[in-house]
Specification:
The protein is an all-alpha fold. The chain is 57% helix and 0% strand. It has 7 helices and no strands.
């Protein structure tokens, strides 16, 4: 009932630029800021030292498999400075699945300009465990 009242109180067109939070049908912000790396130390180190592995872990956690293939693909694209193409796609999938505000432009800027920070933000969003031993599919 409360949710219905909140929907009726929304201004027309508010869903296009709302900040989320009160109405579950509208978008929300990322759980962690783009520069919130240090609260997840193992992920932070992995994102900075070997982003292809962290990318594969996030992909695997989100999709239930594909860690090795995605890590290799990310590494190959990194050698060509094109990893952001793959990373943008994953970030968009996370945004859509978790109803996070943003779009292609913000995904591009995050993955191209701050790829390691973007990986950490995504790691936190999908609740990837601090220590990932084996496969834990939900």
């Amino acid at each position: 009932m409360y949710q219905g009242m909140a929907e009726n109180q929304q201004m027309p067109g508010g869903h296009h630029h709302g900040h989320g939070g009160h109405d579950h049908h509208h978008t929300k912000d990322w759980e962690a800021g783009l520069c919130g790396c240090l609260s997840h130390m193992s992920g932070c180190v992995c994102s900075w030292c070997c982003p292809c592995i962290q990318y594969g872990r996030v992909y695997d956690h989100l999709n239930g498999g594909g860690c090795c293939v995605q890590s290799i693909l990310f590494a190959v694209l990194m050698s060509l400075h094109l990893e952001w193409l793959l990373h943008c796609s994953l970030r968009g999938s996370i945004r859509n699945r978790h109803n996070i505000s943003g779009g292609c432009c913000s995904d591009f800027l995050a993955t191209f300009c701050c790829p390691c920070c973007a990986l950490m933000q995504e790691t936190k969003e999908v609740n990837l465990p601090e220590h990932h031993h084996g496969h834990h599919h939900h």
